[in-house]
Amino acid sequence: MEPRRQHESRGRSSKPADARRAALPSRAMGALWGWVAGGRRGRRRGRGLLRSAPALAAAGMLCTALAAYACWGQLPPLPWVSTAPPRPVGVLLWSEPFGGRSTAPRQPPDCWLRFNISGCRLLTDRAAYGEAHAVLFHHRDLVTGPPDWPPPWGAQVRNAKELRVLDQEEEAAVAEALATPGSRPPGQRWVWMNFESPSHSPGLRNLAADLFNWTLSYRTDSDIFVPYGYLYPRSHPGDQPLGLVPPLGRKRGLVAWVVSHWDERQARVRYYRQLSQHIAVDVFGRGGPGQPVPDSGLLHTVARYKFYLAFENSQHMDYITEKLWRNALLTGAVPVVLGPDRTNYERFVPRGAFIHVDDFPSAASLASYLLFLDRNPAVYRRYFSWRRSYAVHVTSFWDEPWCRACQAVQRAGDRPKSISHLASWFER
Ligand SMILES: *[C@@H]1O[C@H](CO)[C@@H](O)[C@H](O)[C@H]1NC(C)=O
Ligand SMILES: *[C@@H]1O[C@H](CO)[C@@H](O)[C@H](O)[C@H]1NC(C)=O
């Protein structure tokens, strides 16, 4: 539910990626704790080189000529390779996420200034539909309100006004027709974009098969992977968070939790009920027992606590939101997480950077561990050792997914692809 409300990243939000997908964390995390994308990337490179014997021979000769170390990237990239500007790519945001059709389109970001991605034309005017290399469709807006698809591409319908208005009766036929070849501008990719978990993504099964070419989500196995945040190697003294350990003297509180949608049926509320019988938890936010967030703001408030309950609203693979990245890791409160299992978290953050509720047989024993850490600052401080090597990036919505989509098009070949089983993939 969060992207809508998400603040812009306070950290340096423009750390560029060198991974092949928009997958920034592969570089950041691969070496240290064996994150999958590093391996995947390696295999892909292998496959590329070995595709055919002549290619292999050519690659071999090139390596010999230039000396092997140049081939493995230890020298700066070859000038005639690196100076070629990426091809200009247009990406149309079909509608403002969560905005409804009446919302004025946002001002597109400058992908170069923000994320070091050049050659992007970010479009909001539907009149440019025919020119777009990719169109971003935000899931929630596709399944709420009246249907809102581009009309079949072809003969007459090309002016902006007609593109906006579509009779509802035509709609069912149109939805079917759109998945068939020839009904869309040639070479254009439709991208299904979603940052909600499957529990909060209604209507998945109403979307026609093969309608979308790519997926864009927090799931690592998306075509365009954009996590809610990630760690990257610390290279600059100003990288966030500042300092190796937050100022502990300012931490007057023990456990904080910020929750905006209070629902007794959610696992996080049930766990909180048990935990708060054994340790004081200060709850902020609308609904439930929360008190209003003080005027100093959420991040300043949470920074004064030793622990933050980074409890996700539902438990799904890779569904780790800004509650971890921004509210806990960036502010310097040790995250106590409830979400996917520990193994899944360890694909994103070092194991010693967080406390998982599953590490304890009961909320009572978690509470005694937190009280133990409160009395033993030396042990508590170990939860910040990741800061020696890493900084936190918090993804900014929707600028960052938009620019990453452009980058993905630039890096992709022409091979067509479409998503046949969106619901069963995403709900897995
Ligand atoms: C920006 O991207 C270019 C390649 O497009 C790369 O050479 C350069 O190092 C990147 N800049 C930063 C600050 O990482
Ligand atoms: C995108 O999907 C459509 C519908 O399945 C398909 O006809 C088209 O070839 C795909 N295009 C690309 C570039 O993948």
Automatic annotation (TrEMBL):
Q: Which reaction does it catalyse?
A: an alpha-Neu5Ac-(2->3)-beta-D-Gal-(1->4)-beta-D-GlcNAc6S derivative + GDP-beta-L-fucose = an alpha-Neu5Ac-(2->3)-beta-D-Gal-(1->4)-[alpha-L-Fuc-(1->3)]-beta-D-GlcNAc6S derivative + GDP + H(+); a beta-D-galactosyl-(1->4)-N-acetyl-beta-D-glucosaminyl derivative + GDP-beta-L-fucose = a beta-D-galactosyl-(1->4)-[alpha-L-fucosyl-(1->3)]-N-acetyl-beta-D-glucosaminyl derivative + GDP + H(+); an alpha-Neu5Ac-(2->3)-beta-D-Gal-(1->4)-beta-D-GlcNAc-(1->3)-beta-D-Gal-(1->4)-beta-D-GlcNAc derivative + GDP-beta-L-fucose = an alpha-Neu5Ac-(2->3)-beta-D-Gal-(1->4)-beta-D-GlcNAc-(1->3)-beta-D-Gal-(1->4)-[alpha-L-Fuc-(1->3)]-beta-D-GlcNAc derivative + GDP + H(+); an N-acetyl-alpha-neuraminyl-(2->3)-beta-D-galactosyl-(1->4)-N-acetyl-beta-D-glucosaminyl derivative + GDP-beta-L-fucose = an alpha-Neu5Ac-(2->3)-beta-D-Gal-(1->4)-[alpha-L-Fuc-(1->3)]-beta-D-GlcNAc derivative + GDP + H(+)
Q: Keywords assigned by UniProt?
A: Glycoprotein, Glycosyltransferase, Golgi apparatus, Inflammatory response, Membrane, Signal-anchor, Transferase, Transmembrane, Transmembrane helix
Name where it's found. Golgi apparatus, Golgi stack membrane
The record's annotation in PANTHER family points to: ALPHA- 1,3 -FUCOSYLTRANSFERASE, ALPHA-(1,3)-FUCOSYLTRANSFERASE 4
Lineage summary: Eukaryota, Metazoa, Chordata, Craniata, Vertebrata
Q: Which Pfam families match?
A: Glyco_tran_10_N, Glyco_transf_10
Q: What does this protein do?
A: Catalyzes alpha(1->3) linkage of fucosyl moiety transferred from GDP-beta-L-fucose to N-acetyl glucosamine (GlcNAc) within type 2 lactosamine (LacNAc, Gal-beta(1->4)GlcNAc) glycan attached to N- or O-linked glycoproteins. Robustly fucosylates nonsialylated distal LacNAc unit of the polylactosamine chain to form Lewis X antigen (CD15), a glycan determinant known to mediate important cellular functions in development and immunity.
Domain called Fucosyltransferase N-terminal: residue spans = 89-229
> Start and end of every Fucosyltransferase C-terminal domain?
250-425
Record's protein name: Fucosyltransferase
Entry's Gene3D superfamilies? Answer: Glycosyl transferase family 10, C-terminal domain
For this protein, the Enzyme Commission number is: 2.4.1.-
The record's gene field reads: FUT4
Which superkingdom?
Eukaryota
The family this protein is said to belong to: Belongs to the glycosyltransferase 10 family.
Q: Under which pathway is this protein filed?
A: Protein modification; protein glycosylation
TM segment ranges: 49-70
Cited InterPro entries:
Glyco_tran_10_C (IPR055270), Glyco_tran_10_N (IPR031481), Glyco_trans_10 (IPR001503), GT10-like_C_sf (IPR038577)
GO BP term (any one): inflammatory response
Give the record's GO CC terms: bounding membrane of organelle; cell periphery; cell surface; Golgi cisterna membrane; trans-Golgi network
Q: What is its main location?
A: Golgi
* A Gene Ontology molecular function term of the record: 4-galactosyl-N-acetylglucosaminide 3-alpha-L-fucosyltransferase activity
Among its keywords, does the record have rRNA-binding?
A: no
Q: Where are stretches of biased composition, namely Basic and acidic residues?
A: 1-21
